[in-house]
Amino acid sequence: MPIESAGLLLYRKRQQLEVFLIHMGGPIWASRDTTAWSIPKGVISRNEVPLAAAKREFREETGFTAVGDFLPLGTFRQNSGKNLTVWAVEGDCDPAQLISTLFSMVWPPKSGRLQQFPEADRGGWFDPKTARKKIVKGQWPVLEAFYKKMA
Q1: What would the mean pLDDT of 79-106 be, rounded to a whole number?
Q2: CA distances from 15 to 56, 79, 126, 131 (A)
Q3: 60 alpha-carbon distance from chain centroid
Q4: DSSP class of residue 35?
Q5: Which residues of 14-113 form beta strands (DSSP E)?
Q6: pLDDT > 90 in the chain, percent
Q7: Per-residue pLDDT for 65 more than 90?
Q8: Is residue 64 within 8 Å of residue 93, measured between CB atoms?
Q9: How far is the C-alpha of 102 from the C-alpha of 71, rounded, in Å?
Q10: d(CA 52, CA 108)
Q11: Domain extent listing, the chain
């Protein structure tokens, strides 16, 4: 059975539509920019309501609380085999204020040194063209579903 995860796509309307994405933290992603950004998302805990999980993960990965009318975008199969259920919500935040929870991993590989890294090391607002370049390929369908609903 695939792992079920949930996420939120925060958006705002300025001169043009923009989406908020996070750059994945840790040494594996540190030198990458193109296809290294994601929506805030994570695994749905046992007996957790999917939208509640999406809100929790958003808060954990950004430090921000998302409020408003949550627009369901659908469930998307990820390259990893996970199912990702996503909602869009209009809002705003200052990427410079992002605070993310930490995860642990052995780094460098095989060194035996357990180090901590932020789940997201930064966030940013992106127009549709730039967002398509930045987001991981497995989440392209999320953006396409969002832009289709916003048209």
Answers
A1: 95
A2: 30, 33, 12, 16
A3: 11
A4: T
A5: 17-24, 37-38, 41-43, 71-77, 83-90, 102-106
A6: 95
A7: yes
A8: yes
A9: 29
A10: 35
A11: 4-150
What is the overall mean pLDDT for the chain?
96
Q: What dotted CATH number matches 4-150? A: 3.90.79.10
CB 19 within 8 A of CB 11: yes
Question: Cα angle vertex 9, ends 6, 11, to 5°?
Answer: 165
Q: Report the alpha-carbon distance of residue 56 to residue 41 in Å, rounded.
A: 9
**pLDDT tens digits, one per residue of 26-53:** 999 999 999 999 999 999 999 999 999 9
Phi, psi angle pair for 15, to nearest 5°: -60, -30
Length of the chain: 151
Count the neighbouring beta carbons within 10 Å of the beta carbon of residue 36: 17
State the Cα–Cα distance between residues 19 and 126, nearest whole angstrom: 5
Contact 65, 105 (CB under 8 A): no
Over residues 6-29, mean pLDDT: 96
Q: How far apart are CA 89 and CA 8, in angstroms?
A: 7
The span from the CA of 100 to the CA of 22, in Å, is 10
Q: Quote the CA–CA distance of 89 and 102 in Å, as a whole number.
A: 25
Q: Where are the alpha helices (DSSP H) in the chain?
A: 50-62, 128-134, 140-150
